[in-house]
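Chains adopt folds. We examine one example:
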Amino acid sequence: MPTSVIDRSPGAEQSQAERGAIAALLEGASLEIAAHDAADIAECAGYLDPGTEIFISQPMGQPYHGAVALAARLRRAGFRPVPHVTARALASVSALDDYLARATGEAGVEHVLVVGGDRDRPAGPFDSSLAVLCTGSLQRHGIRKLSVGGYPEGHPAIGPKALRDALRSKRELARENGLELQVVTQFAFDAAPIVAWTRGVAALGVPVRVGLAGPASITTLLKFAARCGIGNSVRVLRSRSDSIIRLITEAGPETVIRDLARGAEAGEARFAGVHLYTFGGLLRCARWLRAVRSGNFQIVPGQPGFRAGTPAG
């Protein structure tokens, strides 16, 4: 009987190491949906691990009651809901307390992401995420983990120094109140600004979860990028060849993930994990994530990124 031949060439070993780095980067990935997008939750149970964190954003003008209802649905489906608390959308301190009381009581929420929000004028007393943290409401309602926003390519309305100072203040408040703190970044299409920015945040001792756009059409990605004020990496996206654009459109953020995995393996940056924005739909993103994490992807020599296949199992 002929014996099988195991390829132990340097190229094969390097490929296996890179595949392992990609899988490791996506271990424990979180996802994000909007409060008004409640479709496909039940179907995702077959593709996402039980206890996967699913963040719930609150579109401008939408009341927080929808986020609470969706959080309860996610909890019943076996996921861990992480609703956004949008400071500038809250009309009062009592509204903040009501939101947190409902989220913890009806959906078992223990983790929230607090952001400032995009309103020109606050609806109530909170002009920033830091103002919400200073109330002590999170810990009073049993919140144990806190995420805050990070901006590798900068914020369209806030300067770099102000952002750094605010993150330092949030770190100190979290430590004083026994809250586990992490940064979840805005999405980008290029690894370079993410790696460079993460090096600076590492000095503060705050874990960084890298935000990336899940699989979606190029039109959809550019629409959300324009809405969120992303600059440099959009130019990178537009400058790529048609073949690379098709790869991203049909399969997801493979190129940036592969570059980030290489950076992590080389010790250029350390990441707490990946956070996927489901612009192309929750189920589509969940299927893609399952395929890559189960090893159903192909690295093509001489090409950036990789090609995800059909989810296993």
